[in-house]
Amino acid sequence: MQAGTQNKKLKTSSKNVAGRGVESTSYQNRFVKGIPFKFDYEASVESTEVVKIKSQNELFIGGKFVKPQSGKYFKTLNPATENVLAEVAEANSTDVDLAVLAARKAFATWSKLSGHERGRYLFKIARIIQERAREVAILESLDNGKPIKETRDVDTPLAAAHFFYHAGWADKLEYVVPGRSVAPLGVVGQIIPWNFPLLMAAWKIAPALACGNTVVLKPAETTPLTALLLAEIIQQAELPEGVVNIVTGAGETGANLVDHPDVNKIAFTGSTDIGRRIQKAIAGTQKRLTLELGGKSAHIIFEDAAIDQAIEGVINGIYFNQGHVCCAGSRLLLEESISELFVKKLKKRMQKIRIGNPLDKNTDIGAINSAGELQKIQNLVGVGKTEGGEFFEPNLTLPSKGYFHKPCFFNGVSSAATLSRVEVFGPVLTIATFRTPEEAVLKANDTPYGLAAGLWSEKGSKIHKVASRLRAGVIWANTYNKFDPTSPFGGYYESGFGREGGRHGLLGYLEVK
Amino acid sequence: MKIAKTIKLFIGGEFPRTESGRSFAVTVFNTNNVYANLCQASRKDLKNAVSAAKAALGGWGGKTAYNRSQILYRMAEMMEGKRAEFVDVLMKTLGYFNEDAQKSVDQGIESLVYFSGFADKYQQVMGSVNPVAGPHHSFTTAEPVGVVGLIYDLKFNLGDLCAQIGSVICSGNTLVALMPFEGSAVIAPLSEVLATSDLPKGVVNLLTGSRDELYKVFGSHMEIHSLKYQGQDQKISSDLQVLATGNLKRFVGNKSDSVSLEQLLQFIEYKTVWHPIGL
Asked: How many domains would you assign to chain A?
C-alpha cells in the first residue's frame, strides 16, 4: 500500500490502513517532510485482452460442448455497460434429460473410482483455476458487474481453494462420520445464483465430486459465462466425461432439473421464495435437499467496540459485492450511547467509497447485476422513503451507462418497517438502536431468517454470550463476511438447511450407513 | 370401588383437559370394556402446547449440558419407579404379555439413558475448529433447532417413543408430540415421569387425539421449527413436506434406528463463529 518510511509521517490513523476497501482514506492528505500533497489514483489497466468470449456458447453435457435441443439462445450482458457479451444456449427439458443421463452414466464409473483418483482430478481443477486466475477474474467482473478487486482477491482464489480443500477429502471419507460408512448419493442437481457465479459453482461441485457424486449444474441466467469457463477448465483437467454437466437457462431449466425423476439430490442457493418452491416440488419424493437461502442479518455494534474497525466492518458487511450477498449485514443495530458518533463516521466513510467501472482495480462498488435487480432495489428504497427514517446516500457520481446504485442507509427504522424485514439484496442498510445486550439479541433474532450476524465488542465474555444467543448459522465477531472452504456456511430457519464447507458440508452429499 | 385415574393432556408442565371437552374411549384389549376416556386434543390444545414449548426453549437450552444429561437420567429413574404402571397399561390396552411389557419398559429406560449420555457429547463429536486460511479463530458448534413437532404414527413402541423424546430434548430442543393412537393411554404414566424429573415446564408436551385432525396443524404451524413424522403413510408424509415449506421447517421422515447419533443429529443446527486473531 505504501512505503514504511512514509507511513510514520502519515497523519491518518494507522488503523485505517487495515481492511478491505480503505485505500481511499489512506491515500488522502499526506504530509512528507512537512509538505502536504495529494495524489490521485493511478490509471488502472482494465484490459480484457486475456479473456476470449465466444459469441455463441453451448451446453456442456457428457464432456462436450453441445448445441441445445431447444435450438434457443439467450443473451448475457455486461451490467456495467449494458453491452451484450455473448449468446448462451437455453436448455429445455430434453437437454436436461440428456445432462442427467450423462451424469447417471458417469456415476457408475466415477463412484467406483478410488478416492485417491477422484482427488487427483479435483486438485488439477484447483491448479488450473489458479493458473487462469486473471482470465477467470476478468470474465467474472464482465459478466457479473462486481469489482475486479473482489473477483481477483475473493471469488477466484476461494473457488480454487474449494476445489483444493475438497480434493483432499476424496480419499478420507471414512473419517467424515465417526464409526459409520458412507456412500455417494448419485446424480446431484445444483442450482446457483448470480452473485458469486464461479464461487458458488465451486462450492457446489467440489464437495459433490469429492464424495463420488456426479453433477448437473445450472448457473444463473444473467451470469453463465464463468461456469462455462469452468467447463473448459474441467475439460482441460480431463475429468471423465459426464461427471460434471452444465445446463444454462433460466427458471424453467432449473425447474426441469428439480423435477427430474433420476436426480437424487437438489442443492440450491438463491432466494427463500424459490427455495420454498423447490421444497414443495420435491415433497413426497426420495430426493435429498439442501437450501442456502436469503437473510436479513443483524450487525450489532456495542459501545465498547473498536469503533473505526467496526465502521470498516459495517462497510464491508453491507456494501461488499454491491450488497448482493445473502449474508449481508443489512440491519445495523447500534448501542444508543454511540449511535450518533457512529452514524457520523459512517457517513464520512461512505463518502470515500469509489463506485464505477468494475474493471478499475480501485473500484469498491461495481454494477448491480441486472436491470431487474436494480429496479427491485430502487422500488424498495422508494418504499423505505415513504415509511420514514433518515435517508442518506453519499455524494457520488454514477457512470452514465450501466446499472448502478449508490450505497445508502435508512437511519432510525423500526423493526416493523419493510426494509427491516425484506431482503433487499442491494447496497441498502437500515439502522436502529438498542440499550442493552438483551435488547440487541432480541432485535437481531426478530426475523424469520437466520443466516448470519455480526457483533463488535472488545469484551470477550460479552462476545461469547451474545454469539451463543444469536440464532444464525454464521456469526462474525469483530469481523464480517469471511469465508473459507474449511468453515461450514448455512442458515437457520427460513435461511435454509444444510451446511456448505468443512466436514459438515460433506454430510449433504453422502448417505450415512 | 377403586378410583380410576382421569387421563389428561400434558401441556406446559400441567395436566389440562382438552379445551374442546371432547374425548375418545380406549378399551381394554380385545374387549369392549372402556379402559379410560382420553382427551381428543384440538387445534387450540396443539397451539397452547407449541406456545409452552417455545417459552421453554431459552431456559432448557440455556442449562448446562451436564444438567440436561442428569435430568434425562432422572427421567429414566422415574420410569423405573413407574414400571408397574407402564406394564399395566401396556398389558391392558395393547394386550402385551407381562414379559413383553417389561421388556418394553426396559427399552424405554435404555433409550432415555442413552440420550442422557449424549447430552454433553454430541457437541464434541460434531463440533469443529476450522483451520481457515487467515488470522481468524473459526469454530463450529452444534445447537438445538428449536421447537420440534413429533407425530408418532407407527405401531406403539415404547423404546422408540422414548428415543424420539430423548433425542429431541437432550440437545436443548423442546417438543410437542402427538402420541401414537393405539398406545394413547401410555400418556398417563409417561407424562407423570416427565412431570417429576425436574424437567422444566413445557420442554415436553404430550397430546392424544386424532392424527388426521391434527397433522396439518403441525405442518403449517409457524413456530414449529422441525417436524418429525415417525410414520409410513405416504400421503401424510408428502402433505407435511408441502406444509413445512410455509416456514421452511426441517422435515424429518421415518427412521428405524432411533437409538443413534444420527437420530439426535436430525434436530441439530450448526453455528460457526469467527473472531480475528491478532494483537
From this structure: 2
